[in-house]
Amino acid sequence: MTQGAVVRRSKAELLALGAFAALCVLVPLVPGRVMLGPIPLDAVTLSAPLVLALSIPFLRRLGANRIPFSPLELPALVFLGITLISVVFSEGVLSSALTWTRYATYILLLVVASAVAMRPENRRLLTWTVALTSLATVAQAAYQFARPDALAKSFAFSAEVGARVTGSFGNPNSYSEYLVLAFALTLSLALAEKDWRRWSAVAILLAQSCALVLTYTRGSWLALGLGVLVAALMIDWRLAGAFVLAGGGLLSIVPGAMQRLTSIFASEGGASVRLPLWNLAVEMFRLHPWTGVGLGGYVTALMAQIKATPSMLPAGVTPMNAHNSFLTLAAETGIFGIAAFVWFVVCTVRSCFTYAKKLVRGSAAWLINAALSVGVIGYTANALTDNSFQNPRAAVFYWLLLGLMCANAAQADGGETQGATGAWPAFRAKVARVLLGRGAEGAADLEPWGERR
Fold first, then answer.
1. Would you call 273 helix, strand, or coil by DSSP?
2. Non-local CB neighbours of 1 within 8 Å, separated by 6+ positions
3. pTM of the predicted model, to two decimals?
4. Which residues 6+ apart lie within 8 Å of 294 measured at CB?
């Protein structure tokens, strides 16, 4: 990340960059949802489309050949195409169509973020925005833990545990998923910055870690641990032991944390609660294997099925979401939809290692890629035990992180923004030229994006 450089930005670039920065602030800090008829209005549904719209002037200034190519685009588009079928066959077509639009918006955010963040200074600004905003949520979480009276009845696990903090998210699971991604982005600062900025990032990492532990969300603990372990092995295997010791030390000093972690397979809570919910999702997939019940329609379809077949609900189980993003999507989109989504997820994880091989070992870009891999791997693992991809306020940062990772690799590759050959990249380039044109000629502010071809 370039420090102390004089950056020349056009008004269009400033508009796009400001829009992304505003999203990074508003989504975690503005809770709540208002229904406009069947349309939910919240920080994500309002800000994400606005960010895309405000980025159009800058995209047209860039032109098609300066937009980084991402290997994630094709599987993402295949997923969108297949899931349109589930929308058609859904009982709530409008609701399912709105959910499909949300996924389409995420994918566009990935592509647009990779373009806006091609300039290293832009990536740095957006990353610091996420890190500093996360501190505001940590402060709120600290207040909640200091005054647990309002949360103790709902979230106490033992006499040692005062409260599960929720930050500004209102739910400990959702908040922990956001913290996993914020941690990865802040880690990239700790690895790439220098002097007091690096130590500031380290301090933020410690604050995020404390807040994450205080959510008492075991799935997110283990998911982040897996992501950090993989990243440590990518950088230097000796770091893995240090991270394990640091994580274990933090859990040991937080009241009730070790008890919470070891209760995963207890008779109450943990797997005993998740397994019946997973079995219900598998049963819904079995009943609708080809088209699914429609994107976003799982809970509604499940309740209708239980009403028609009460015997499918195990005794003592409260029907709710599946607490597994992959099983939820399987039930919602059918076998072809979940296959496409798994393809996309595999490509995201593979990109972590593909970019690591392409980048110069030991360079700032290489370290940043390893840090962002923590978020990709951690969030994916988290989705096995919770509804990570169905939680818009956290998920939007997953797609933003993917865009920053793509930009980091593309910019470090000598300005080669296309980065691939073949039928799909060629078709993609033609479509982009039709939509965006050739871009501005000889614009000095576009130098970091490399030469046009």
1. helix
2. 120, 121, 123, 124, 192, 193, 364, 368
3. 0.93
4. 86, 87, 89, 90, 91, 92, 93, 95, 96, 301, 332
How far apart CA 190 and CA 155 sit, in angstroms, is 33
CA-based torsion, 169, 175, 177, 179: positive or negative: positive
Among 97-101, 268-272, 404-408, the range scoring the smallest mean pLDDT is 268-272
Contact predicate 71/421, CB 8 Å: no
Report the SS3 class of residue 94.
helix
Please provide the DSSP assignment of 289-329 as one string: TTT-S-TT-HHHHHHHHHHH-GGGSPTTPPP---S-HHHHH
> Residue 440 class from Cβ within 10 Å (0-12 exposed, 13-18 middle, 19+ buried)?
middle
Residues 6+ apart with CB under 8 A from 123: 1, 117, 368, 404, 407, 408
Residue 415: band (very low, low, confident or very high) from pLDDT cuts 50, 70, 90: very low
* CA 57 remoteness from chain centre: 26
Please tell me the distance from the alpha carbon of residue 379 to that of residue 444, in angstroms, as a whole number: 38
Q: CB neighbours (10 Å) of residue 80? A: 19
Rounded to the nearest angstrom, the gap between the alpha carbon of residue 10 and the centroid of all alpha carbons in its chain is: 29
- 377-396 pLDDT, tens digit per residue, is 999 999 999 999 999 999 99
- Tell me the one-letter amino acid at 58: F
Q: How confident is the model at residue 453 (pLDDT cuts 50, 70, 90)?
A: very low
